[in-house]
Fold:
Amino acid sequence: MGAGYIAQQIVNGLILGSMYALVAIGFSMIYGIIRLINFAHGDIVMIGAFATLGLMAIPGVPFPLVAVMVLGVGGLVGVLIERGAFRPMRGAPQVTGFIASLAVSIILQNLGILILSAQPRNFSFPAYLQVMINLGPVSFRLVDLMIMVTALVLMLVLMAVVYRTKLGVAMRATAEDLDVARLMGIDINRTIMVTFAIGSALAGIAGLMWGGKFGQIDPLLGFVPGLKAFVAAVIGGVGSIAGAMVGGFVLGLAEVLFVGLLPPIYSAYRDAFVFSTLIVILLILPNGLFGRSSEERA
Amino acid sequence: MDLRRSFRLLILAALAGAGLVLVMQATLDDYILSIVKFVGIYTILAVSLNMTNGYTGLFSLGHPGFMAIGGYATALLTFPVERKAMFLPDLPAWLAGLALPFLPSLLAGGLCAALTALIIGPPVLRLRGHYLAVATMGFLIIVQVMITNWDSVTRGPLGLNGLAELTSLWWIYFWVALTFYVAWKLKFSSRGRTMLAVRDDEMAAQTLGVDVFRTRVFALVIGAFFAGVAGGLWAHLITAITPTSFSLVMAFNLVVMVVVGGSGSIAGSLITAVFFTVITEVLRPLEEGLELYGISEITMALILILILIYRPEGLFGSREPACLQPDEPARGERK
Structure:
């Protein structure tokens, strides 16, 4: 087990982690602004993946344009969900929103099965993205590089929006205190809608990446990224954007390294390991790595 | 006065239930009877989760984990010795030579689940709210992974099959009635009020001398016991058990039943458990006939969202119908 092997595993972990981080950021933003654990977030990843598949089938649409349109599709679905399900129950106990999001998730998955059938479909990017790149001992596909670069660029853009624009101020104020933000003249409905749009757009593009990474998509694929985003967001401290990023990378690295570095008989215990680590982290840092102490209860 | 009235009510309810069992056994075919049994098991699950989740406000998604522990424990105890030798040759000697009747096995299953809750409770229950939800979900996944990999005892992903079909309607009736009795007695006892107090305002409860931590552990343990028993009943109804029998989806469904019925309302849990199980069964043939797979899930989810929008506190809130209220209304129950 040389240094090259470990370097390769770390690269794999970072690639997986950047996808987790993208999904986790949206998840965490939505939690931050209306204290909603949105389990339907993972299903937007699924919708993003299928939207990519559909758009790539149209001849003459260049791939970068597909990516931009997928961002749009994700954002649109997020806004529709917010208007249809979550806005009418704003102000209800947190558990209510959580359960409603489960219901939305079930609806999206089953609509997917109904319209697209449960059969998995092959998913492949244009050939030029499949080229292998070798950097010393480490090798990866161009897609993988693209996944990481896109993820990092989007995270930087998001940070700029949240910390450098008026909209970002409104978002942070609404997250801080919804009622006071409203008193200060912030249009909170619009702010919440935009937050959903941004978070869901990131999940949609993560769907494009998910399909490219794993090569197969089906209507139930959103469950795993949704769950992992939940875990990543909690590790980082739910509500914190930086925390969600770090949590995503930590989770991706931990998973890959656990499987890659330990003897194969333990790899069946991967998920048990992930969740045990999670519980231990929570017991030591009850609010995650970056979360502020929360005053709310179940 | 109060005691005599509720005692009479209890006898009446027990007799009515027994009569219903007799009538159903005489008139219904096997298919419908099996649905009735599932309704019963879901009722036990929803009412017991209500003690953890509803009374005390512990948002636990770990209920199926306790079911799995109870289910496997029960199945291992009822499995005939000669079949154990064939299917599970690596079983420890004391367990390999042991086969118990159904009731002690179920009790052992419930106790195993309760013991697990007692062990994981103290560390995990330091968490609150969503963090607790994540941790209990983690517990469920850890249980599944352990069961999948503990080949010598659980036969890994294959699971245990060919279990005796021991879960008769009478057993279901007995356990439903017992779960109800315990839930009802508990709710209107001083311990039950303690639980509701912890849910409603933890700090106020603590100020008044409630041992919040012990109350939370107790709520998890008692819920786990009935979940374990329900797991055993389940395994001996479908005569098989695998690591994926009790999934996160089931945890969601159970939480939905508790919340839609009203957190803390026994009657609410009962009604939603019956309603959801029956609706699913009714919609299934319809869905197959029209070849519109997934339509029943969509319908259920839409109903759920509408209920959450128009009645966010659930059908019953924390209340019970008047006939189930003891004469002296419990504190916090007054409108």
